[in-house]
């Protein structure tokens, strides 16, 4: 996949994570039954403030069930749990962690979500 193709794919995934209707995103729960147990990218979104965090996982459901710093931070920021939801994008490939890392990096550099503390620097 060329650099241009990767950037185009990252933009498409970011658009899906950022602009899917808030009501179509997954509400907070203990089990996240409706979140796919597949590799993918995910975003914590606030109803009004937008993207809070972007991440990747080999298993989206297990990642969220296992706890996440964004849960704690949104609680500390006193957000109503009904105003924070999860958007997911399942990746059709599971054997290419380098590509999922590159996609995540491009999205973080483009959006700089407040809960992503360390954002990878752009290569020169």
Strand order of the largest sheet: 1-4-2-3
Helix content: 25-40%
What is the name of the CATH superfamily? GIY-YIG endonuclease
**Known CATH architecture:** 3-Layer(aba) Sandwich
β-strand amount: 15-25%
Distance, first to last CA:
19 Å
Structure description:
This protein is of the alpha+beta class and 124 residues long. The protein has a single domain (3-111), classed as GIY-YIG endonuclease, CATH 3.40.1440.10. It is 37% helix and 19% strand. It contains 4 helices and 4 strands; from the N terminus they run αβββααβα. It has helices at residues 3-19, 60-65, 69-76, 97-111, and strands spanning 26-27, 40-46, 50-57, 84-90. Strands 1-4-2-3 form a 4-stranded antiparallel β-sheet. A hairpin with a 3-residue loop joins β2 and β3 (50-57). α1 (3-19) crosses α4 (97-111). It is globular and about 40 Å long. The relative contact order is 0.23. The mean pLDDT is 89.
In short:
With 124 residues, the protein is an alpha+beta fold. It is 37% helix and 19% strand.
List keywords for this structure.
4-stranded antiparallel beta sheet; 124 residues; GIY-YIG endonuclease; globular; 4 helices; alpha+beta; single chain; 4 strands
List the topology elements:
Blueprint: H1 3-19, E1 26-27, E2 40-46, E3 50-57, H2 60-65, H3 69-76, E4 84-90, H4 97-111
Antiparallel strand pairs: 1-4, 2-3, 2-4
Helix pairs in contact: 1-4
